[in-house]
Amino acid sequence: MPIDPDSKRIVIKRGSMDFFDAVTKRHSVRAYAKKPIGEGKLKQILEAANSAPSAHNSQAYEIFIAKDEAKKVALLESSSASSYAADVSVVLVFCANPKRLNSSNSIRVTNMSMQDATIAAAYTQLAATSLGLASVWIGSFDTNIIMKVLGNPAGLIPVAVIPIGYPAESPAPKPRRPLNDLVHKV
C-alpha cells in the first residue's frame, strides 16, 4: 500500500465506484461465489474500517477475522446464517472495547464503544461494496458462541458479524422510507 509522505499514513486506493454509488449499491447479500478475497482488497477494507470516526479518537473496538472454515461456520451458525458459510471468503466480527475509553460512567463508555464498532462496521460494508464485494450485517447472534470462537477475550462486546465475499446474487433494492417521513424539523 502506498504511504502519504506528509502524514505517514497508508493511502487507501480508490475502489471501483464513488461514495454515493457504494451507498446506493450496497445490499444485504446472502449468497456468495466460492472465490477468495485477495489480501490487498481485505487490507483496503480494514484500512477503511480503521479510518472510521470514533469517540475521542479512542477507536474503542476490535475486529476479528475468520478465514478458517470451521470458525466461519461456527460464527455464522450462532445466528442461523450457516448457509452463507460454505462460500463466503471471510467473516469479520466487530466488538466494542469499552476499556479503551477513560470514564467512570460505564453506561456512557459502553454506548460510545458500541457506536465506534458500529461505525467501523458500516465503513467496512461500504468499502467492500466499492471493491465489487458483497456483505450482510448480522446483528442477531448467540453472544456465548461468538465469544467462544473468538477465544473469550475479556471485556469485549460483540456488535456485528459481517461475512464478506464475491456476490453470487444481485438482490433488488428494498424500498426506503421517503425523506418526508424520515426527516423531522425541530
Can you put this structure into words, describing what you see?
- The protein is an alpha+beta fold and 186 residues long.
- The protein has a single domain, classed as 3-Layer(aba) Sandwich (NADH Oxidase), CATH 3.40.109.10.
- The protein has seven helices and four strands, in the order H-H-E-H-H-E-H-E-H-E-H.
- The chain has helices spanning 19-25, 39-50, 69-77, 82-85, 106-130, 143-150, 179-182; strands at 61-66, 90-96, 134-135, 157-165.
- The protein has a four-stranded antiparallel β-sheet with strand order 1-2-4-3.
- The radius of gyration is 17 Å and the shape is globular.
- The mean pLDDT is 86.
Level of helix content?
A: 25-40%
Give the ordered list of helices and strands: HHEHHEHEHEH
Overall number of strands: 4
**Class by alpha and beta content:** alpha+beta
Mean pLDDT rating? 86
Strand arrangement, largest sheet?
1-2-4-3
> What percent strand?
5-15%
CATH superfamily: NADH Oxidase
**CATH level 1 class label:** Alpha Beta
How would a crystallographer describe the biggest sheet? Answer: 4 strands, antiparallel
* Annotated CATH topology: NADH Oxidase
How many DSSP H or I helices? 7
